[in-house]
Write a structure and sequence with these properties.
Lysozyme, about 50% helix, about 5% strand
Length: about 170
């Protein structure tokens, strides 16, 4: 097993807040891929996120999410009920970033310094785990020899990612 950081740093968290497509929104919104989202791009999941909203259980949250997706917009009820505070947004961000770090560690077992690890966590946070797993960038990382710098062919790939889960060409 190759060594690299296993957690995203405070600088990595800040990188996500500065470079993401999402500013912090304390009210629910639809992201470009039409998923019901809040905070710094946290996709709401009824079973895991109902505790964030007073008087809302998993069934109610699922109903609100389905209504928003069906309407293609945030419904009035969802806009009233689905709100968080800045501390909750920060905690969701930290949890999502930790999940990205765990995923990165499991699918990219190559040596990375903290800055590289943080940058890849930020990328995963923004494009999603599935898109990263099949990306040319990940393939290039896996071909790299210790310690990474990434192959020069990867440098231009960063700019090719677009919103809404579109991966760069292989």
């Amino acid at each position: 097993m190759t060594s690299h950081p296993s957690t995203i740093s405070a600088r990595g968290i800040e990188l996500i807040t500065r470079t993401g497509h999402d500013d912090c929104s304390l009210a629910v919104y639809l992201c470009p891929s039409k998923r019901v989202t809040i905070g710094y791009g946290h996709v709401l999941l009824p079973k895991f996120d109902c505790h964030l909203f007073p008087n809302t259980d998993a069934a109610r949250l699922a109903r609100l999410i389905a209504a928003c997706r069906g309407a293609g917009r945030i419904t009035h009820e969802a806009s009233v009920v689905l709100r968080i505070n800045a501390d909750q947004a920060r905690q969701l961000l930290i949890g999502d970033a930790r999940q990205a770090a765990l995923f990165l560690s499991s699918v990219t077992p190559v040596p990375l310094n903290q800055n590289q690890f943080d940058a890849l966590c930020s990328l995963i946070f923004n494009i999603g785990q599935g898109n990263y797993a099949t990306s040319t960038l990940r393939k290039n990382c896996m071909r790299a020899i210790t310690p990474v710098p990434l192959p020069s062919s990867s440098a231009g790939l960063w700019a090719q990612w677009t919103a809404s889960g579109n991966a760069c060409p292989a």
